[in-house]
Amino acid sequence: MTQELFKDFPNDARVWIYQTNRALTEKEIQLIDRKLQSFVKDWAAHGDQLWANAQVVNPFFVAVAVNDKLTPPSGCSIDASVKKLQELGQSLKIDFFTRLKVTYIKDDHLDQVDFSDLSTLDENTQIFDPLLSNLGELRTKFPVALKESSFAHLV
């Protein structure tokens, strides 16, 4: 599924991953996707339109991608995207900045575990590592075995 994300973007496009504190409902996913599409349509850095897109990846993650080779995002434009997710989170009572949980696959379902309980997972458990830097990693390493993730040293 993640290999189909942002089809018109190169693998080296910059990406930001936002993890939620709970699974999004289908209604919330549709609303968030609509709001993010509206946001990226007008998203600019110093007046220059960004080649960007955003979407809900699965019920626990939102991704924002920018082809920074065409127009690099500025600090202000990045702040604007963070603010947009904060606003959405406040209106929907969702925390898009969850850093104390790890989302993983168990029996074909997504679940979360507290970061402090990460060692309870098997090293081969497929997790969603939000510490990715580009779209290629999102497409090929989301999910990834815990032992191959940024958190491997914690297990």
Describe this structure in words.
With 155 residues, the chain is an alpha+beta fold. It folds into two domains: 10-92; 101-154, no CATH class. Helices cover 26% and strands 26% of the residues. A hairpin with a 2-residue loop joins strand 6 (101-106) and strand 7 (109-114). Helix 1 (26-41) runs antiparallel to helix 2 (75-92). The model has no long low-confidence stretch (mean pLDDT 94).
Distance between the termini: 27 Å
Number of strands: 9
- Derived from helix and strand composition plus strand pairing, the structural class reads alpha+beta
Q: Low-confidence spans: pLDDT under 50, at least 5 residues?
A: none
Strand adjacency order, main sheet:
7-6-8-9
Portion of residues within helices: 25-40%
Query: How many strands, which pairing sense, and closed or not: the largest β-sheet?
Result: 4 strands, antiparallel
The helix/strand series, from N terminus to C terminus, equals: EHEEEEHEEEHE
Radius of gyration, CA atoms, in whole angstroms: 16 Å
Structurally, the number of domains stands at 2
So what's the overall shape? globular
Average pLDDT taken over every residue: 94
Percent range for β-strand residues: 25-35%
Q: What's the gist of this structure?
A:
It is globular, with a radius of gyration of 16 Å. It has three helices and nine strands. Helix content is 26%, strand content 26%.
Task: Give the tags.
single chain; 155 residues; alpha+beta; 2 domains; four-stranded antiparallel beta sheet; three-stranded antiparallel beta sheet; 9 strands; 26% helix; globular
Helix and strand layout, with pairings?
Blueprint: E1 14-19, H1 26-41, E2 44-45, E3 48-49, E4 52-58, E5 61-66, H2 75-92, E6 101-106, E7 109-114, E8 126-128, H3 135-140, E9 144-145
Antiparallel strand pairs: 1-5, 2-3, 4-5, 6-7, 6-8, 8-9
Helix pairs in contact: 1-2
